[in-house]
Amino acid sequence: MANSKLNVDGALMLEQPFVRVPYENYRKVFRTSQRNVEKEFGPLQNASNDLASRAQAGSLTTEDALKSVQSAWMTHSILTHTSSSHVRLWVMLLYLHSWGVKRQLSDLNETAGKPTLDVMRERLEHLATIESVQSTTEPEFSRWADTRLDRWLVDWTLRNGKERTAKRIARDKDIQTLVDIDLFSDIKRIEDALTRHSCTEALAWCSENKAALRKIKSTLEFELRLQEFIELARQRRNEEAIAYTKKHLVQWQETHFEEIKRASALFAFPPTTTCGPYKRLYDVARWGNLIRSFRLAIYNLNTLPNEPLLHLSLYAGLASLKLPACFDTNTKNVDCPVCDGESAALSAATNKDVIMAGASTAGSVHDTAGHKPQLSPTSASSPALIIGTMMSPASAVQPLGLGKLAEEVPFSHHANSTIVCRITGKIMDEDNMPMAFPSTGSVYSLEALQEMAAKNNNVVTCPRTGDKCTFSELRKVFIS
């Protein structure tokens, strides 16, 4: 029961983006409402202050109030200091007008804000489910974990441009409010525009999130403005490029003066130039860099990791399984996810040997992940065999499957090892001791070798090397 106790903090470790995305959406709704308030009520407030001061001074007439009725806001000072019944009438009309504006803002919050609040509420309720769960064996946790896996699958498909698949999974699993399809749809829309060499959509997004981008010190807007200038220079529209510089680039000169100065020299260099700095500015590959910069910025704003959540969760498991034996073609285990695909390519790429001591690759010494750790026989007559394994060119291919993800994580550390026989697949322990061949050091279990000796007149044969000896010549092996 102790092993199955739920670690709530660990389960929620990757869930910050889960609640942050709708929170950021609601902030956008709030900012939109705030801009509408400033737009609608700003002129009303200014006009009302003017009317109040004039009424207090006794110089306000009915005609003046009529002129200001559409742009003034009723304040307490107007009602207090106005004695004219006609002015009071217009003030009441102002109140009705302002009430209509407030109703419009209320409708905006109801139509745009309430759905986002509902999403936040459902997501928080989803996370709160496991707070009352005590064990990972409870059915409630299994249902929650299944939903979490579905969310991660949708996240993976969205990041890889499979929007239709993501929508299908979300609909079939009824988790539309628990995934960020709308966010990634916006990302795809803006990235598609950048792919078409258009900065309009990305600049509009920068304008909507100007304060947040400034807070994280993002230079995305400048990069987009610079690229638009480069495109004007590419088309040799010099007058428009100069006007564009004055309007959009001059404001960045304090922080990006060198980039602006270098870009200004494009007037003297055609797009076919071979001069390094200006050839790089004209390079169309810059659009790919803009796409990556935009995605990094929008991920940072929503605290989304750069990699899919599914990958991050797999990293944790792979880090506990990864061993040097995973990168040796002779010691791979078909049941190990780290060995999935040609993960040995990493060893070949880094030109490092896999060092194994005390047992040949024919023996099978595995830790809890099912792999061979370093082993050293303690018997005086048992030779210590050091094997340096270099990957052949044939094995140095692009890693596939989970083996590719495993390259990104460190090797695991296990205080205790488990030795598994390569013949029977059974664990070797004090009741089924590991036995080594005297000449090669190949290690197998006592049970497997006893069975082999009984069938072959007390002679055992290493299935890997073909080495033969009598059963009595085998040596016991101990893990140091």
For the structure shown, list the relevant keywords:
5% strand, ubiquitin-protein transferase activity, 55% helix, two-stranded antiparallel ribbon, mainly alpha, Fyv10_fam, 480 residues
Task: Give the secondary structure arrangement, pairings included.
Blueprint lengths: L7 H4 L4 H42 L4 H7 L7 H6 L3 H44 L10 H21 L3 H11 L7 H15 L4 H9 L1 H6 L4 H15 L3 H12 L3 H12 L11 H7 L3 H16 L7 H13 L23 H6 L3 E4 L28 E4 L11 H6 L12 E2 L6 E2 L5 E3 L6 E3 H10 L3 E3 L6 E3 L4 E2 L4
Antiparallel strand pairs: 1-2, 3-4, 5-6, 5-9, 7-8
In spatial order, strands of the major sheet run 6-5-9
- Low-confidence sequence ranges: 70-87, 343-397
Average pLDDT figure: 76
How many DSSP H or I helices? 19
User: Proportion of β residues?
Assistant: 5-15%
Describe the structure.
The strands form four sheets. Strands 6-5-9 form a three-stranded antiparallel sheet. Strands 1-2 form a two-stranded antiparallel sheet. The chain contains 19 helices and nine strands. Residues 70-87 and 343-397 have low confidence and may be disordered. The longest helix is centred in the N-terminal third of the chain and has 44 residues, at 85-128. It is 55% helix and 5% strand. With 480 residues, the chain is mostly helical. InterPro entries: CRA_dom, CTLH/CRA, CTLH_C, Fyv10_fam. Residues 184-240 form the CTLH domain. It holds the Pfam family CTLH.
Report a brief summary of the structure:
It holds the Pfam family CTLH. The protein has 480 residues and is mainly α. Helices cover 55% and strands 5% of the residues.
